[in-house]
Design goal:
By secondary structure, this protein is an alpha+beta fold. The protein has 2 domains: 4-204; 222-327, no CATH class. The protein is built from 7 helices and 14 strands.
């Protein structure tokens, strides 16, 4: 599939109705929302009404927004917090077209964990270009969408990433719809849902490779990142499913491994993640980073994995060596001057 942002983000569609092809059945698009990531619904009184037109209108008065990997959860709740997705659907729940104006709108006042206001207003808007659905059970449906991002505070504040031409990356939206009176098994959207619970996630769609040129400022070794806390692009980092404040992560990197290979992996993985976050080319190492992160999830820091253990000799050692090579500028990104 060609990247949607390359095909369509130059279209003047802010006030247009976008036509979406319909079929008797629609598979999921398998979008992959990245960061900044907006989570909506869940325990809130989010509703969907498919009975008028029929139209799809998912609204929520609870938002959680994480602006970057390892970042704080910023919460918006109350009357001004709302996520709305509006499209027309056929009797089989397939998308037909968008609505006049923005099909996607996210708004609210975001508070950080100390209850300081960090952003307020319309956070994100977009025009839906693709939609998919899957009936999970008789009462649960899963939808996903792609949308051209047209504006919002996340865009104007620079939180939403752009391609090399400066256009906001396409949004990927995942939505789960639950309702006890919804005969999803029959795909009958004409008599479908009067009320239900909607919850979902929105973020830049990582399943569509962006047209991106890396700035490649140069990679640093694990020793560099241990000794230069001022160079860290984040204040905390998540490794092996555990989030560490920067100071704690550096303290753990400083500890002598004493034969525990989880500390060796921890050091190299943090360095690689930080090198990627400052916009070094990650095309040769991202899969290794993901596998190493899973390795530390399976073998938590401090679990005393020795060099002769299968976990290290059969998998960990090779991942560690690849990370070390990347951090030393020997792979697809240069070493720092």
């Amino acid at each position: 599939m060609k990247p949607i942002n390359n095909l369509m983000n130059r279209l003047a569609c802010a006030a247009a109705i976008i036509a979406i092809s319909a079929s008797v059945s629609a598979d999921l698009l398998d979008v992959q929302p990245g960061f900044p990531q907006v989570t909506f619904g869940g325990n809130s009184s989010a509703t969907v009404d498919l009975t008028a037109a029929p139209s799809f209108d998912a609204s929520s008065q609870t938002l959680e927004v994480v602006l970057a990997v390892g970042g704080d959860i910023n919460i918006a709740a109350g009357a001004d917090a709302d996520t709305t997705i509006q499209i027309d659907v056929d009797s089989f729940c397939n998308a037909i077209s968008g609505v006049a104006g923005d099909d996607l709108s996210v708004s609210g006042t975001l508070y950080d964990p100390s209850f300081n206001i960090i952003k307020s207003g319309v956070l994100l808007t977009g025009e839906i270009t693709e939609a998919g659905n899957s009936m999970a059970t008789d009462t649960v449906a899963v939808f996903d969408f792609r949308a051209i991002v047209t504006g919002g505070v996340l865009v104007t504040d620079g939180d939403w990433p752009t391609d090399t031409g400066g256009s906001p990356l396409v949004a990927g939206i995942q939505l789960t719809l639950e309702g006890t009176n919804a005969p999803f098994a029959t795909n009958d959207c004409s008599t479908l849902l009067t009320a239900g619970v909607a919850k979902g996630v929105i973020g830049p769609d990582e399943s569509v490779p962006p047209d991106h040129t890396f700035t490649n400022p140069g990679t640093g070794t694990q020793g560099y990142w241990r000794n230069h806390p001022e160079a860290w692009p984040v204040d905390e980092i998540t490794i092996g499913g555990v989030t560490y404040p920067k100071a704690d992560a550096i303290d753990l990197m400083d500890r002598a491994p004493k034969g525990d290979k989880t500390y060796n992996m921890f050091r190299q993985l943090i360095a690689a993640m930080l090198n990627i976050l400052i916009d070094n080319d990650n095309t040769c190492i991202q899969t290794v980073v993901d596998d190493a992160d899973q390795w530390l999830t399976d073998n938590p820091l401090g679990s005393n994995v020795r060099a002769n253990a299968d976990a290290w000799s059969l998998e960990g050692d090779a991942l560690h060596e690849a990370l070390d090579s990347y951090n030393n500028g020997q792979l697809c990104a240069p070493h720092r001057d």
